[in-house]
């Protein structure tokens, strides 16, 4: 069967429905993506999970300074959303941004190097986990300020429009960020100016300890799209196909010049907010329930059931991700630290 | 009269001050992000929500500008809010309400109202939280007439200054260095205040005056012990309050020592050190100076993530030692 690799959303959906090996009809989004892209997506999801677990272990062994926010459980949301994007497209990310960074194509070695504060890291050891960026791949950066990236994404979209490119910007943020003024101001401007930006709220039910019920007046963050005259779409953020479909729809619309979309990707963070969370605001049962909805397990099973992946291939994909992570940690550990004399380097351009 | 004195951490001392004020006056309320069941990002509010309920220990949404504005409005109309910023860096999101509203309302309204508001700011570097969670922005707020700004360095002082702040009819901003939260020290039970606008001499000395703020007070004291081994007696002044600033205590000290070093964590230039130096240059202590004034402050860059760079970015004990030794070389 013929399969195509995603080329930044500019490809048209395959006109003739492609049959899976088993003969059943594939979901439209899988036809559009093709087998290679789907396997690549699965690998990225594994990479994110293994990266987070590796970072957690390194933190506990004292190799990582500061704090970190893990996105375990949110892998389908990050990877699915980035499927329609090419390196020319931009994202803005959040404090919980490791997954976005990997989904947008980052090298895990340079990411670990950043976490270890090394000169070879994406930010030359100056930024760390909370400021990780990969500009060459279009990732304008994680952000330590909740909601800080949303207006920046609108600015990037304004720039893309004025420069007459077909670039699209995706702005990731959490449910907590939707109560910041920056969110409201940014959505309004994006809509008034019909900018090519997609707002992706990863609603993992809590901003730190505060549930959306206690922080947010509307039942769904997507309901707020009405106030800014843009489509508001709710997806199951743990369902890769649903996320990817919603993202393609929104990105296509943005590329056509029809303006922004607000996607609410409903998901869950399995780990605590950060290293200091004692999980007092939620129950073990709730966490266990969501563990049972592991997006990677579900996606892998789906690919196997659809005949898009064999057991051997699935093992191989995982093994490859494991090897990459191991090599990445070694690269980071062996990399040099920035020299102290360079403390004030990068403050100004010259 | 003699209240029992226990060892409390800086964070516990803050919590105790808030609890005392809340017991005494039901108009005192706490507002902030994750200060309820979570206990606050630095566990300062701890279990207060269980004692005073969610109506008085209010989790706000992540809305610093709106939250600060709500606190200003509540303060204007009979409540006494204590507003916790999760990190002092997020004051930047609320600057409008702090600077344009809280600081100026009383003046603009010709003294018809007051804003009895307390804001608490966990500040400073040393935790690996990088550029947007490690700043020392106290001088920004100290530049605004209408605000009072304090920087307590000990558990005793933070309790007393917080109680003074709550009793104060005007907005008081308290900068709490994050590295101090776990530091322990003697704290009397019950209510007492430490006056806003009063510096404290932490160590007497005749050779050099070191004026320091927050965590730098402890570094300066450590340096002073080392200096004493070389026969250098440093006088260490804990500034405690930036606005109003107790320049009198500094002037008197400099008249005695003839030498001044200012140590603070905010960016070195255009900050606290400049203000102190100018106060000396404008005072009678100028004639007593027998060495240039030295400022030791934060480097001219954002706080970096790498731990060694991070340490290099702000004064450490060794920085103070080296500066004092070079200042005093040949001048004792
Ligand atoms: C302006 C600002 N306020 C508060 C914080 C502290 N903080 C960091 S993450 C966070 C929770 C964010 O929740 P959400 O947007 O839902 O993202 P999640 O952590 O759930 O991914 C808070 C309160 C911050 N970094 N920036
Ligand atoms: Mg959230």
Automatic annotation (TrEMBL), chain B:
One of its GO terms (molecular function) is oxidoreductase activity. PANTHER family: PYRUVATE DEHYDROGENASE E1 COMPONENT BETA SUBUNIT, PYRUVATE DEHYDROGENASE E1 COMPONENT SUBUNIT BETA. Residues 8-183 form the Transketolase-like pyrimidine-binding domain. Its cofactor is thiamine diphosphate. Transmembrane segments: none annotated. The lineage of its organism: Bacteria, Pseudomonadati, Pseudomonadota, Alphaproteobacteria, Hyphomicrobiales. This is Alpha-ketoacid dehydrogenase subunit beta. The keyword ATP-binding does not apply. It comes from the Bacteria. SUPFAM superfamilies: Thiamin diphosphate-binding fold (THDP-binding), TK C-terminal domain-like. The keyword Cell wall biogenesis/degradation does not apply. Keywords: Oxidoreductase, Thiamine pyrophosphate.
């Amino acid at each position: 069967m013929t399969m195509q690799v995603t080329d930044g959303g500019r490809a048209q959906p395959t006109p003739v429905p492609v049959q899976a090996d088993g003969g059943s009809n594939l979901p439209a989004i899988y036809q559009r993506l093709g087998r290679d892209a789907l396997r690549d997506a699965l690998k990225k999801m594994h990479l994110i999970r293994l990266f987070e677990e590796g970072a957690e272990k390194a933190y506990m062994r004292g190799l990582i300074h500061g704090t970190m926010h893990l996105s375990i459980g949110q892998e389908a949301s990050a990877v699915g959303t980035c499927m329609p994007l090419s390196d020319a497209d931009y994202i803005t990310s959040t404090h919980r941004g490791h997954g976005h960074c990997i989904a947008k194509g980052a090298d895990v070695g340079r990411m670990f190097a950043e976490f270890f504060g090394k000169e070879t890291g994406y930010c030359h050891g100056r930024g760390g986990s909370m400021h990780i960026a990969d500009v060459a791949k279009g990732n304008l950066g994680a952000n330590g300020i909740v909601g800080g990236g949303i207006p920046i994404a609108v600015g990037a979209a304004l720039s893309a429009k004025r420069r007459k490119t077909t670039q699209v910007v995706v702005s990731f943020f959490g449910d907590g960020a939707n109560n910041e003024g920056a969110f409201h101001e940014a959505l309004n401007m994006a809509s008034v100016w019909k900018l090519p930006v997609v707002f992706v709220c990863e609603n993992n039910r809590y901003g730190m300890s505060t549930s959306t019920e206690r922080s947010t007046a509307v039942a769904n963050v997507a309901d707020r799209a009405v106030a800014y005259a843009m489509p508001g779409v709710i997806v199951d953020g743990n369902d890769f196909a649903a996320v990817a479909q919603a993202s393609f729809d929104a990105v296509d619309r943005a590329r056509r010049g029809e303006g922004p979309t607000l996607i609410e990707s409903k998901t869950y963070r399995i780990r605590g907010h950060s290293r200091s969370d004692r999980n007092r605001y939620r129950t073990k049962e709730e966490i266990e329930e969501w563990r049972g909805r592991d997006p990677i397990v579900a996606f892998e099973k789906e690919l196997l059931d659809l005949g898009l992946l064999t057991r051997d291939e699935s093992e191989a994909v995982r093994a490859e991700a494991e090897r990459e992570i191991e090599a990445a940690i070694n690269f980071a550990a062996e990399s040099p630290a920035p020299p102290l004399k360079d403390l004030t380097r990068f403050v100004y351009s010259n | 009269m003699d209240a029992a004195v226990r060892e409390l951490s800086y964070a516990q001392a803050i919590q105790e001050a808030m609890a005392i004020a809340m017991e005494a006056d039901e108009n005192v309320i706490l507002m902030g992000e994750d200060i309820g069941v979570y206990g606050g990002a630095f566990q300062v509010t701890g279990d207060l929500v269980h004692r005073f309920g969610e109506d008085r220990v209010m989790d706000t949404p992540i809305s610093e500008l709106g939250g600060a504005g709500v606190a200003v409005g509540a303060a204007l109309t009979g409540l006494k809010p204590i507003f916790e910023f999760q990190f002092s860096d997020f004051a930047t999101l609320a600057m409008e309400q702090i600077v344009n509203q809280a600081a100026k309302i009383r003046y603009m309204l010709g003294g018809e109202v007051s804003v009895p508001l307390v804001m608490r700011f966990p500040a400073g570097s040393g935790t690996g939280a990088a550029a947007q969670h490690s700043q020392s922005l106290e001088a920004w707020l100290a530049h605004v007439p209408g605000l009072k700004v304090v920087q307590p360095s000990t558990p005793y002082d933070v309790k007393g200054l917080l109680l003074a702040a709550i009793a104060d009819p005007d907005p008081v901003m308290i900068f709490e260095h994050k590295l101090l939260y776990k530091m322990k020290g003697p704290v009397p039970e019950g209510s007492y205040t430490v006056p806003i606008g009063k510096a404290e001499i932490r160590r007497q000395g005749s050779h050099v005056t070191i004026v320091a703020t927050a965590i730098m007070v402890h570094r300066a004291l450590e340096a002073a012990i080392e200096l004493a081994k070389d026969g250098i007696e440093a006088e260490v002044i804990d500034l405690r309050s930036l606005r109003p600033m107790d320049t009198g205590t500094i002037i008197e000290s400099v008249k005695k020592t003839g030498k001044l070093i200012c140590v603070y964590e905010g960016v070195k230039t255009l900050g606290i050190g400049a203000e102190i130096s100018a106060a000396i240059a404008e005072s009678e202590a100028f004639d007593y100076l027998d060495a240039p004034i030295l400022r030791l402050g934060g480097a001219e860059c954002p706080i970096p993530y790498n731990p060694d760079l991070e340490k290099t970015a702000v004064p450490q004990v060794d920085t103070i030692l080296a500066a004092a030794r070079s200042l005093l070389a040949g001048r004792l």
